[in-house]
User: Fold this.
Amino acid sequence: MAGNREFFNRRLHSLLGVIPIGLFLLQHLTVNHFATDGVDAFNKAANFMGNLPFRYVLETVVIYLPLLFHAIYGLYIAFTAKNNVSRFGHFRNWMFLVQRITGVITLIFITWHVWETRVAAAFGAEVNFQMMQDILSSPLMFAFYVVGILSAIFHFANGLWSFLVSWGITQSPRSQAISTYFTMAVFVLLSIVGIQTLLAFV
Amino acid sequence: MAEKTVKFIIQRQDNENSAPYEEEFEVPYRPGMNVISALMTVQRNPVNAKGQATSPVTWDMNCLEEVCGACSMVINGKPRQSCSALVDQLEQPIRLAPMRTFPVVRDLQVDRSRMFDALKKVKAWIPIDGTYDLGPGPRMPEKKRQWAYELSKCMTCGVCLEACPNVNSKSNFIGPQPLSQVRLFNAHPTGAMNKAERLETIMGEGGLANCGNSQNCVQSCPKGIPLTTSIAALNRETTIQAFRNFFGSDQD
Ligand code: SF4
Ligand code: FES
Assistant:
């Protein structure tokens, strides 16, 4: 396997983006959407998630470790590219660039977000509706959350497209075109979910 | 001085290590002229637009009919073959530059060795030599032959490597051109006997997995080779190969 380390790393990077990170994103967006049903609904859901048995094990194995690998290897990938959309302005080349930009934004956002919620929780703060309301009461933070969430969702949706190519599932130009429509629909729909949730806090 | 001329802005470089600079040339217009015929005029009379004598511009060429790939250069920002670049179809002034993804030898001439080395690395041929006559190999269905012919049109011109954002000095990505050749030679009934070997080569450092799906290659290839379909198909083949290597028997 040693000779194939790069192959293995790239494939792992692609896989981890969907399972578990992508699945976690879906779950996270869904659970947070309870905020649109009011304070109690959100607090109940957040409580349930925050008090799952083996929480630290789950968080580490399902979220932190995969995310760390995906982020570090992703930065390496992003910075070994020499973007050239000014010379080659094709749709996919733009997506290639945006995928890298949203990846970096998402990393910054998630770091901040984890710091503000999970790390704060470790120091005794309670993660609840009130906490998010306080954070999002600042227009600057609200804008940061909008950009961060949209970046994360785009990166996931378009990443799903390249996952299908990288693993050899979509090969024909037609299947790749249809999966473009599909993944962009995923982007739009999840964005609505994310923004609705954010608006529920203001 | 009523004669019609075409202006060329050429990025020049005196040797492998010297700094590039621009020089302008005014070439008399002739109907149907292409970039190479203009360069030939410059070569016959190496005088730049300011009227100063200069060294003749060098470039590479061979077939003059877009089948050898030697004459590729960046013309008005796009890598393509200069022999088939008609002046009438180009915006003027015409800007010429070497494909800097490759080491520049001089002026517009680049060293395309990396592509030939890549073909050797992936064994882009069909081994038929032996110590005795091996007899005729298996036949190829006509339909498959027609399909394979399209892949075999690659002329190692380097345009796809120049277009790829992941082929650059910071990365060791082999690029789209040799990958598609792996698919071609693996599809051949005799070539398929070395299929696993070729797949394992492109699963190594700088191989297939470095593709980032910008798909510039397929948009730029002058021969219309379905590079991204080849890459996706190889992605599937290598997925299967990786599982075989890990879970399979000692025969795989
Ligand atoms: S695949 Fe196309 S662009 Fe690439 S080297 Fe071959 S002919 Fe040129
Ligand atoms: S000279 Fe052969 S492709 Fe142009």
The domain at 2-201 of chain A is CATH 1.20.1300.10 (3 helical TM bundles of succinate and fumarate reductases). Residues 98 and 134 of chain A are 31 Å apart (CA to CA). Residues 91-122 of chain A form the longest helix (32 residues).
